[in-house]
């Protein structure tokens, strides 16, 4: 077996991208993924579940075969469990597919078993997205409320400081998600909605000590291409192309969230303004301090885009695709 025979994480990321030309023949692409799984040609064994989840998505969206998609989602669950990866996302997808196929009780049993993870796992907000997709928005609001209040009760008792920060980040995500759901339902503000507003305001306001917010700089495709054409050495920091750049940004955001950093957001850079920033003070454009200074300036003056978006919301990168099919899979790099 040669290295060329393997499907790497980057290869799988490319498969998941809606602009991938291979999606023009979804049956062939699905077969390619399944051969790689069945023949042991997934470079990182932890990605077997990822490959099967992608296959399930292709069966559902391109081939309109819900039964096949359900079977593949089940295989993804088994593969993630076998490799020690979280099986939350494929289980949520399996529940959604069960609902679409008319097995509402089985779907709710699956989701209810996962519900406690809303209090401990930042990615468990996928459960709420799933509830919304299957028309159980009121239940989503109740689950978010229960989880948010449970996290609030335990924050003060947690040790060490890192655990409190992680719980704070969990609470921030829960109340923000809940706030949106309640707005969709037309419900009046309550104390948790007020907390969401205060946390959002704090995330948009420079901190008194650092003068900056918790945010990351990213480059839209045309701006990144312009910068790499002018200064190729920037590929070391930004990635050699737009797909690589988006993967780097998404993975850093995931790592920061796992460390308990609250209020994460993104701000888009402009190639023209960066060139002007460099020229104004005769700076080295490839120096990390130059890039950091430009990012801090943007974060102090522009409204950043909160991260993460909902799985079915438009992706933060501006591709026009849904987050779950665009940059979300890149977090697995």
Q: Care to describe what's here?
A:
With 333 residues, this protein is mainly alpha-helical. 60% of the residues lie in helices and 3% in strands. It has helices at 9-16, 26-38, 48-61, 66-83, 88-100, 104-114, 125-133, 137-155, 161-185, 191-204, 221-230, 235-238, 242-258, 271-280, 288-301; strands spanning 215-218, 265-268, 305-306. It is globular, with a radius of gyration of 21 Å.
Features:
333 residues; three-stranded mixed β-sheet; 3 strands
Helices, strands, pairings?
Elements: H1 9-16, H2 26-38, H3 48-61, H4 66-83, H5 88-100, H6 104-114, H7 125-133, H8 137-155, H9 161-185, H10 191-204, E1 215-218, H11 221-230, H12 235-238, H13 242-258, E2 265-268, H14 271-280, H15 288-301, E3 305-306
Parallel strand pairs: 1-2
Antiparallel strand pairs: 2-3
